[in-house]
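>> received
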Amino acid sequence: MNQLPAKSIQARLAFLIGALVLTAAITALIGIVNAAKFQQQLAQVENYAATLQQNADARSDLLKAQIALKNTFITEEYRAQDYGDYAWYSQRFDEYLYMQSLRGKPVADLKTQNDLYKTQSNDFFTEIDAVQSGESTLEDDEVNAILAQMNLDEIDPNAQQMEKGMQQLYTLDLQSMRAEIAAIEERTRLNLFVGQLAMLALAALIIWSAYEMMHISRPLENLTGAIVAFENKTYQPELLSSDEKRPDELGELARAVGGMAVSITESNRLKEQFLQAAQRFVPSQYLEFLEKDSITSVKLGDHVSAEMAVMFSDIRGFTSMSEKMTAKENFDFVNEYLKLVSPIIQKHDGFIVKFLGDGMMAIFPYGVNDAVQAGIEKSQLVQQFNQTLKTRGLPPISVGIGVHTGPMMVGMIGEEMRMQGDAFSDNVNLTSRIEGLNKFYGTSMIISEDTLRQLPQTLKMRSLGKAVVKGRAGPLGMYEVYEGLPAEMVALKESTRPGFERGIQLFAAGKFAEAGSLFSKVLEQDHTDKTAKVYIEYCAEMLDRPLPAGWDGAIVMDSK
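>> returned
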């Protein structure tokens, strides 16, 4: 069947269905015709059987008529009854011959013989009547002898001829019935042969149907598998390579699906490239935060309002450092640094809202601990980066990190043709001010008092007192987190922390001399503690002034 000429599936199925219907119709028609013919032949056989029975009955009637005729002179006591029997059976035989003549049977000779037989019988009975009426001059013995001789010489030979004629009719009817039975047997054999041919034809058509179904179902299964593979992103062109060679509709479909798959795969590849490229500008975490499935769903004005932690950070002293670099060196250095520290934000479930030159602004929507831990790890990573810079002959860098928490709105700003993510809130501006205080205090990481309240664990930190930042009227409690610094610096800050925090308390109480003494002792132990030096300078300055009204120890910052 593989060598069949290429045709469309529709044409092959139409031909197959037509062949099945035609074969079934011809088989049914032959069956109906044969059944009718068989019924007709059976009726003919029944007719022949009835004819044979009639022949047998007629021969019996003829025989009974002969017996009745003989009994008239054998038993004188029953001559009247015997004559009646003879008349009855003779009449039945006459009726048989009449019916056979109507059917066109060759009974002319029989009728002639029967007429002669009836004439002889009438003469016979006439002689008997003459004896009984006394008209005959013969004696009974003589009459019986004459009658017996008449039976032997005339009646019996004629009856035998009639019997032969009846036998011939019987033989003709029997031959006709046997011929009809033989025809039935022949038709039965022919019907059996035709039935076998029909079964073979139907079997061949069924086998062909099964082949066609397999020939259709297999590529359909391949197409289904290819589509499932395409959905699972595991599609390979080899899945449909064999089906694409088919010359029928399934081949066209396979080629169309293959072409579509290649086109969509290429489209998806380009889309994936686009999305990967888009994530560089709008990170996937930011899309998830905005509850968008892709960047194409983002619209101007999309935003989320909630209480979140925000982080600002930048490189301390980078301006003076960059003056010694070319523009390209500056560009490469900043990108190297940002590529190093940015993954830490994502690691702690945050996302970068925007880059600010050598710094960044990041949001942590799921908890302040994420932001603080990211800041600590960033500080530690900068220490490792400094080792790399040392091998290049470059000075080490330090970073300033500020973390604050509070209600804010994060979303898309700009205009339809140019938009970007940003965060808006007084708390965002406040975090920027807090990060800027690192330069003032000489610290690496500062968190607000609001952030500290929400931290689930105790960190290596110390209070920096209170400050009033630019743009904010009230004082803000601040804390230095130094857990991410080098171990020796952490050890020094841990050892001086009690005296430092006691000095903060005395400073807030207006006891500047005592506070300055404690800060001096801290500075003696850790000469790099710029914050202690700042407070020493403030204590000396405040000793020459009257204590301001409402003093709470907050330092007012005149710059950002």
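>> The longest helix spans residues 140-231.
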